[in-house]
Amino acid sequence: MYGYEGLIELTPDQILQKITQQQIFEFVLKKQFDFNDRYLSPFREDKRPDCRFEQRPDGTIVFVDFGEKFLHPNKTHRSAFRMVMDKFNVTMHGAIRLLCKEFNLSICKSDYSEEGIVKYDRMEKSFMPMEYESKPFSRADIIHWSQFLIKPEHLLSDNSYAVRRFTVLKDGKLKQINIYQYCYVFDFIDRKKFYQPYSIKYRFITNCDENNIGNFDNLPPSGEELIIQKSYKDHRVLRNLEWGLNVIWFQSEGCVPEREILVNLTQRFKLITIFYDNDVDGIIAAMKLCDIFNSIRQGCCRMVHLPVFISRKLTWKDPGEFINKEGKQDLFTVLKQIGIYESGNGK
After folding, report:
1. Start-end of H helices in 190-318
2. Position 1 in a domain
3. What is the CATH number of the domain that holds 303?
4. Inter-residue contact 136 to 156 (CB < 8 Å)
5. Helix (H, G, I), strand (E, B), or coil: what is residue 280?
6. Does 68 share its domain with 92?
7. Which of the pair, 72 or 151, is modelled with greater confidence?
8. Over 80: is that where the pLDDT of 290 sits?
9. Which helix (H) or strand (E) holds 26?
10. Do 97 and 133 reside in the same domain of the chain?
11. Which one, 42, 76, 226, 271, has the greatest CB density within 10 A?
């Protein structure tokens, strides 16, 4: 019915039947492949282009970097797939999914539920939220947000409230939505986003568009670094570190505000950091947004994401999930590892 039955996850050999090793290397390095050229390492600070490509007798091409022999002796010769794994800090499974999406090779079966429905949050733009009745935060609300170290006073200062009931306009008629135990609103005055974290059918209901940016009005006129997150929860986790970070949040990873807003941000901040989830969708969305910013001002934008703890077989997608499972102190350590520092100035 949906055309999903034939979708399977490709193997590395199947991928190389559709694209070349050279294309994968170019995807990672953002530079044209040439056996005769010399390259900078994308994995360490490297000011002298001395890395090269080498082809083995079996046809495998490797990226040769003898500068790694002191830090990572087993990574002086990287294959195309190893380059993707190390560049984006993903497993082989993640590298395969990333390449599938980047080159439109296939859609991985794991992206779908058993019913064949895409496993993404719903954002019902056909609804037009009209009214809501707020209520005091209950004990259950406080417990829910406390797992991310977010307190009621944080929510209230961000125009975010617990909701008793709300109505929306659908097909020209007002309709009251059944409220689950947990329901919150992020109030942008003329536009609103309702969030029901444990609802299956309507997790998000909003009339917000890509230009409704959370915490935008609280930014300073200028600064060293701006961090862009994809949700209220994760942006608030970073703000609560009290590191003086400038953080905003977009409505979703796929949202791209109008160019005028992006130009404004590039003029106000020396560095813009896209900090999305460390899954394939987050990485691809971050790459695309980063390219847009860098097309406005070359070199102004970078992307980071939480590391994958392969040795422990743990993967936390975002700061909210990480701080819930690992704690605040470990989050401090990891953020420093990926280049986010106190005061947001790289020092």
Report:
1. 232-239, 259-268, 280-296
2. no
3. 3.40.1360.10
4. no
5. helix
6. yes
7. 151
8. yes
9. helix 21-29
10. no
11. 226
